[in-house]
Write a structure and sequence with these properties.
By secondary structure, the chain is mainly β. It has helices spanning about 85-90, 145-150; strands at about 5, 10-15, 20-25, 40-45, 50, 55, 65-75, 80-85, 95-100, 105-115, 130, 135-140, 150-160, 165. The strands form three sheets. Strands 1, 2, 3, 4, 5 and 6 form a six-stranded antiparallel β-sheet that branches. A four-stranded antiparallel β-sheet has the order 7-8-9-10, with no helix packed on it.
Length: about 170
């Protein structure tokens, strides 16, 4: 069982049971504006948790993005997605990272920042996100799209070209 909890340091722990990984999202429990959030991926080996790489600082933000509204990790922990609903004056965005264990202490490499081309108004993209087990299909929620009608944007990753692209129109 996984519980989303906020501790006294304004951090939220999210459990990913398939890989026994925990993602710690700092400042995600605060409602104030901030420019970036620091992420840690922690691995459990024989019940002992170890931080994998340095803290992660999201690059390419516009304004105060409130990064950390959603976090998703593939089942093998090779791909991680984080959402920032307030990026670019509430349009929002998601950032995709790939694990590069050989590059310690960095560990995570930012691959791409995704914004839906057919979003309308203050869409708050990155309100929610879900990543497929293999890390190649991503659903991004945007509850404010089109005057709070809401939308979901689907992206896929082409493993041959290494390009992420939006699939069809918003749902």
């Amino acid at each position: 069982n996984c519980v989303f909890t906020c501790n006294n340091k304004n951090e939220m722990d999210l459990c990913v049971p398939v890989t026994t990984m925990t993602v710690r999202v700092s400042n995600s429990c605060q409602y104030g504006m901030f420019y970036f959030v620091v992420f840690f991926l922690i691995s459990s080996v024989l019940g002992v948790f170890n931080q994998l790489g340095d803290k992660l600082i999201v690059a390419g933000t516009i304004g105060s993005p409130r990064v950390g509204r959603c976090v998703a990790v593939s089942s093998d922990a090779d791909v991680m997605v984080v959402g920032g609903t307030d990026n670019n004056n509430l349009v929002g965005a998601v950032w995709v990272y790939s694990a590069t264990p050989a590059s310690l202490p960095t560990y995570w490499t930012q691959v791409v920042k995704l914004n839906a081309g057919d979003a309308v108004g203050d869409s708050f993209q990155g309100t929610s996100c879900s990543l497929s087990s293999d890390g190649n299909t991503l659903a991004v929620g945007a509850y404010g799209d089109d005057s709070f009608t809401g939308a979901t944007f689907i992206y896929t990753h082409d493993i041959t070209t290494q390009i992420w692209s939006q699939q069809g129109s918003k749902l």
